[in-house]
Design brief:
It is a single chain. Helices cover about 45% and strands about 15% of the residues. The chain is an alpha+beta fold. A 3-stranded mixed sheet has the order 1-2-3. A two-stranded antiparallel ribbon has the order 4-5. The chain has a two-stranded antiparallel ribbon with strand order 6-9. Strand 2 and strand 3 form a beta hairpin. It is elongated, with a radius of gyration of 25 Å. The two termini are about 45 Å apart. About 15% of the residues are buried.
Length: about 220
Amino acid sequence: TGTKDNRENFERLLAECRKGTIQMVITKSISRFARNTVTLLETVRELKALGVDVYFEEQNINSLTEDSEVYIGIYGVLAQSESENISANVKWGINKRMQNGTYNCRFNLLGYRRDKETKEIYIVPEEAEVVKMIFQMYLQGKSLGQIKAYLESNEIKTINGKSVWDKSTVKGILINEKYIGDVIFQKTYREDCISKKSKINRGEVDGYLIMDNHPAIID
């Protein structure tokens, strides 16, 4: 889509245009080409400088014609606005589910899984023992580096099956409220639907604490 971060084939198309192997790009609509107005205009201008025409079927616009950029810009703003409105509606629905505790967040962390059918969160016993051990070692005064070294020397794998642990992964376990059965929604947030940059929530948006959301591994 026009807002997708990784647009591999779109980049491949542009590369072919730069090589001179494509003379004309035919696309269904401006919203399919790009929903970021800046990206849209920059790309059209670059292709225009290369002599490559972009034809937008829905709007019946050829980028090489006179005054085309004005119309492309107008339709581009409308397409971006549509994306922002859709994003706002989706966010509203998610926030409502967060407020009433029915939002199913991802549970890709050591010691837990979510049942695909029932959506219930359950404890994985052998992994839960590793989690308990990590907390116990930290309470005994072990550093993150010492815990990391112990896990690796005993060939204990990470949640992703890796043999090497990062100290940040160990720290992430120790500060994760999910291990006491609680969950905090919206610890991070996206600035907008165009850049899709995630930021730590320091009060910019509402956060939601759901207590006793699932079985606890530690007290």
